[in-house]
């Protein structure tokens, strides 16, 4: 599933070609994603409107339009937003096509159909079922070490599960949670209320460091993820623990281990993470 750095990379790749163009027409496949695609609602909100900005909240993409409406997109597990020319063949599993002014299309492709594609007015957006449940974005300017310490103390659960809880930190997923815990030197099964202030400060810095590195590397591409131009990221080449079970740790040399937590694989170094 694309995480914060991948979604941020898609947002940055969308802006240069999307902002300033109008939506001329909208086509949908008729198949449902995680929630049904409401074509009439999309047309009422977006047809004839000009895209004025692209932003990100957690793992959600938000495209702002001149009518005051917003297109909310979640890429699910395999979703992609891709630019194409009208004459280009459409990829299998293309579930929405936004025909834009200037002879360009923006296509939503999602083989596994776990994504979300919905239109909201600006006033509805913060109360939407997607955004209203989200916690703070870990790259938000007002996110602080003190805030993280308080959140850890009140959670009383394992660290890995805490980091994946979108109602606490919006945007972190499996890859970057594993990487942040390694960088902070913290075991994934450590209980949150047993993390002291110094360790919490390390974790705070590690979360931001791995996310910012992921953005600089334009995301982690293992299978489906590409940006709006169809380009892969390179962050997979720098991962310290994720996906490296049985390989030597680049710091201490011990073999990277994998355990299952909450039905997800957790990768960690038994030497570096206490």
- What number of structural domains do the residues give? 2
Please tell me the overall pLDDT.
96
- What best-fitting shape do the alpha-carbon axes yield? globular
CATH topology of the largest domain: Helicase, Ruva Protein, domain 3
User: Radius of gyration in whole Å, from Cα?
Assistant: 20 Å
Secondary-structure arrangement, i.e. CATH architecture of the largest domain: Orthogonal Bundle
Number of strands: 10
Low-confidence regions: none
Structural class comes to alpha+beta
Strand order of the largest sheet: 1-6-7-5
What would you note in describing this structure?
The chain has 274 residues and is an alpha+beta fold. The chain has 2 domains: 4-125, MutM-like, N-terminal (N-terminal domain of MutM-like DNA repair proteins, Alpha-Beta Barrel); 145-268, Helicase, Ruva Protein, domain 3 (Orthogonal Bundle), CATH 1.10.8. Helices cover 27% and strands 22% of the residues. A 4-stranded antiparallel beta sheet has the order 1-6-7-5, covered by helices on one side. Strands 2-3-4-8 form a 4-stranded antiparallel beta sheet. It has a two-stranded antiparallel ribbon with strand order 9-10. Helix 1 (4-18) packs parallel to helix 7 (197-216).
Q: What keyword list fits this structure?
A:
four-stranded antiparallel sheet; 2 domains; single chain; alpha+beta; 274 residues; 10 strands; N-terminal domain of MutM-like DNA repair proteins; Helicase, Ruva Protein, domain 3
In short:
The protein is an alpha+beta fold and 274 residues long.
């Amino acid at each position: 599933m694309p995480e914060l750095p991948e979604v941020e990379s898609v947002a940055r790749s969308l802006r240069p070609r999307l902002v300033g163009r109008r939506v001329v027409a909208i086509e949908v496949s008729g198949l449902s994603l995680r929630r049904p695609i409401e074509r009439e609602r999309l047309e009422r909100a977006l047809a004839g409107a000009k895209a004025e900005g692209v932003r990100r909240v957690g793992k959600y993409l938000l495209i702002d339009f001149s009518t005051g409406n917003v297109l909310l997109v979640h890429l699910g597990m395999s979703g992609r937003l891709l630019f194409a020319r009208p004459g280009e063949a459409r990829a299998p599993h293309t579930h929405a096509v936004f025909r834009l002014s200037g002879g360009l299309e923006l296509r939503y492709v999602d083989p596994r159909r776990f994504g979300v594609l919905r239109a909201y007015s600006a006033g509805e957006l913060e109360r939407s079922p997607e955004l209203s449940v989200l916690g703070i974005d870990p790259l938000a300017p007002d996110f602080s070490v003190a805030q993280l310490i308080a959140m850890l103390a009140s959670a009383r659960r394992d660290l890995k599960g805490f980091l994946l809880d979108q109602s606490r930190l919006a945007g972190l997923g499996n890859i970057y949670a594993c990487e942040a815990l390694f960088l902070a030197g913290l075991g994934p099964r450590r209980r949150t209320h047993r993390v002291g202030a110094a360790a919490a400060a390390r974790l705070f810095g590690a979360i931001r460091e791995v996310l910012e590195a992921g953005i600089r590397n334009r995301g982690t591409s293992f299978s489906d993820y590409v940006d709006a131009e169809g380009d892969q990221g390179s962050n997979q080449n720098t991962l310290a623990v994720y996906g490296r079970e049985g390989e030597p740790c680049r710091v201490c040399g011990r073999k990277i281990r994998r355990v299952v937590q909450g039905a997800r694989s957790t990768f960690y170094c038994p030497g570096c993470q206490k």
